[in-house]
Amino acid sequence: MIDTELGPKSVKGAKAGDDETLRREKLSTAETEPPPEGIEPDPQWTAEEAEQARKKYLLTRFWISARGYWTRNGDKLAWPCTIALLALICVNVGFQYGINVWNRAIFDALEQRNADTVYYLSAVFLPLVFGSIALVTTQVALRMAIQRRWRSWLTKAVIARWLANGRYYQLNLIGGDHKNPEARIAEDLRIATEAPVDFVAGVIVAFLSASTFIIVLWTIGGALHLAIAGSTVTIPGFLVITAVIYAGITSSSMAVIGRHFVQVSEVKNQTEAEFRYTLTHVRENGESIALLGGEEEERNDLEKTFGNVIKQWALLARQHMRTTLVSQGSSLFAPVVPVLLCAPKFLEGSMTLGQVMQAASAFAIVQGAFGWLVDNYPRLADWNACARRIASLMMSLDGLERSEQSDALGRIKRGETKSNVVLSLNDLSVSLDDGTAVVKETRVEIEPGERVLVAGESGTGKSTLVRAIAGLWPWGGGSVCFHADRQLFMLPQRPYIPSGTLRRAVAYPGAADRWTLEKIKDALDKVGLDYLTDKIEEDAPWDQTLSGGEKQRLAFARLLLHNPDIIVLDEATSALDEKSQDRMMEMVIRELPKVTIISVAHRAELEAFHSRKVTLERRDGGARLVSDVDLVPHKRKRNLLLRLVEKPLPKRNGSLRR
């Protein structure tokens, strides 16, 4: 059954009946480039090569949308903040160089026991430190502002595409790598937008630092002269060469040791998302589980799911241990190596203590710049995995969007009726996303004020037909046409109860303050929920507090507030007893006498509240409409059923419409 409630929705012919959806579509296409076609694997590729190509394309797909933040349709502050951050990085590297020069001067003054110079340099040190601190603090603020605004922009763009045209629902009906979209949008997208800013800033800092302090090392260290077997070997820029070799060893070691980091991190993130989903599923279905006594089975399932999480964490811990071995060893050796290299020149008097300390400081900075990969490889791997997960969701949305624009699988068209008919189904066929027919060639016209009951055995496609009418099911053929400016409101079997106050739950999907307190209380009173009026402003978990029958009564209260033109009831009274069901239907007919009702139900008692009954029957190649009868007599005949089956059917409880 449909788990979300729609309405009221204005249905206007060629606009597919939903201006708000079109607005969101416009927003999503403005903020992101059109979805690219997915790559087709080469038949000659091995399974591993095809998987590698897919993963590579996923990163490309992520950047196609993500880079839109810096385009004309992106954030107006994106470039100003980015340029300001780059300027601060450059100035901060200058301060680093100043501190490095100060380091040399202070040690030279100490070696010479020059008190005046020491005191002077001590005074100079404070402005250098405070300036560097101010720069770094501002740099952090700007960097996090870019991350925050980028995440906000891209999250809104993805959510707009996810919610447009019921895609959030359609993802449950198609195959693809898009499980747990809520975790991908909330967590993976956060990491996918935070890490790149840190990486780019880190790379720029590393490049500028390495460029600046390599010159310092080359200038201070000069050439190293070694006497070997009676001859002298000269190594120009020996400190620079040593720094490059040292960084090359550590970086290559990290690349080899952590080559499986990305894959392990990606699997770990997926298992974490599945565990969160399982916990949420238990919470949302707590009442049913408790009534059935299914705690033991749920615990076993949770323990199994959590066991997968622990297993992946253990594999990830091993990767962290290996990378920590390299990074920790590198951090311990880096300060010592330049001192040992400069020791011979210092002992022979060709290098001062200040030069040794300046060289050590510069070597550490160069080593840190070259060793950027060593320090950031785990996080880079985590970003890689998160970017691929959000890109997989984007690709699934791309597929749905392309299918909306293509007739390859067949699309149900939505338009506007040309006469007084409020709703017409014209050769409507409903199929699965793989082309399998569910309902075939249905032609029905419904006039204003009619109350139509759609009947049929389970599995004949009644609820699927309702989804097609509501616009949630796009695949098929034919068209669904509404009268202009008519509002459609749907009541599913499981009404959606949002978080917040009871007042908000009754007013949904309208704003809680759209109606006065008296009108909301009156609506609750008419559906038999008057005992809840004292709690109307209470913020409580109403989705867990209300029973199934109370939720369905609350959904009928929404009808009274929104006063739509067309109501679609999909087993909307299944949780009510017969007397309560009768009272609800009588109340709707009394309070909304002009409303058009389309009901999907199994109970025969509901026929008394409808003027017409159409029946679906399962056939080869898809269910078909086999009968359309008046439950109450009409003064004039109407050509409402245009085509049923190949041969006439016997009359059923009334006159068969031809």
TrEMBL record:
Pfam families in the record: ABC_membrane_2, ABC_tran
Database matches in SUPFAM superfamilies: ABC transporter transmembrane region, P-loop containing nucleoside triphosphate hydrolases
Region (Disordered): 1-44
Residue ranges constituting the ABC transmembrane type-1 domain according to the UniProt record: 83-382
Bilayer topology annotation: Multi-pass membrane protein
Entry's transmembrane regions: 77-99, 119-142, 199-220, 226-249
InterPro entries: AAA+_ATPase, ABC1_TM_dom, ABC1_TM_sf, ABC_transporter-like_ATP-bd, ABC_transporter-like_CS, ABC_transporter_sub-D, P-loop_NTPase, Sigma_54_int_dom_ATP-bd_1
Composition-biased stretches (Basic and acidic residues): 15-28
Localization, UniProt: Cell membrane
Domain ABC transporter, residue spans: 423-645
Alphabetical keyword list: ATP-binding, Membrane, Nucleotide-binding, Plasmid, Transmembrane, Transmembrane helix, Transport
Molecular function via GO: ABC-type transporter activity; ATP binding; ATP hydrolysis activity
GO cellular component, one term: plasma membrane
Record-stated family: Belongs to the ABC transporter superfamily.
Entry protein name: ABC transporter ATP-binding protein/permease
